[in-house]
Amino acid sequence: VAVSVSFVIVNRLVQRRYRDVAASLLTVLKQFEKGNLTYPFSVDNGQFDNVLRYIQKLMMSHNSTKGRIDEKLNERVFEIITVLINAMEDKDPYTSGHTTRVAQYALAIGKRLGLSKEQMQLLNHAAAAHDIGKIGIPIEVIEKNGRLTEKEKLMMESHPIRGMKILSSIDYLEDIASIIMYHHERVDGKGYYQLPGEKIPIEAKIIAVADAFDAMLSDRPYRKSLSLQEAKQELIKNKGTQFDAEVVDALITVLEEKEPLKEFIAF
Hints:
Hypothetical protein af1432; 2 domains
């Protein structure tokens, strides 16, 4: 499973020339092959040709180990996904650390809403991978300083479905793929794919709020960041239209408590 996902991801990275993650990915895949699923994984330099060969080798041998290490692979593949997305984000000073913060905001909201252990795990994985579809979008579009053309806008708005396609071919990732697909939907039905609010998964609603909140607190090429108070007011203003009201209320409560997110927000 991890091999299949890694193959797709690395193909996208090769196209985007993110070669700085190759050696580290190769090392961890070698350790996976040996059954060492606790090997630490970090970004480093290296060659993608060898990475691809190892991924292909592991794809062929995966069936022989299926069932014995799938649960651990489930966790490890999302560690890989997170590192790769962080590597992509680190290319852009405006988005560096975005995925990590979104995941933390989302988990804090989920805990406040009383999500089950299974839902929290699903939320964590979906938040970690929510922008994986951007890997297939040209860097000059992602980093553009100015208004996007209509073509570029459509390209950026395609990243949820790109992310869904990357993950949905793997049976046990279908729920996560669905959340990623709908994380830019609006509860008033006017989102990217105009899904009615009642049909949007709660995890997608949570990520939508966490994602937008982090964007509000971050500088962008075309605007300065909002203050914390301004961001809170923006969320409240859009309750029931762009954002789920219960999710917004949960985040506001968490922010008032301060403690759960003090590592990520300067109160």
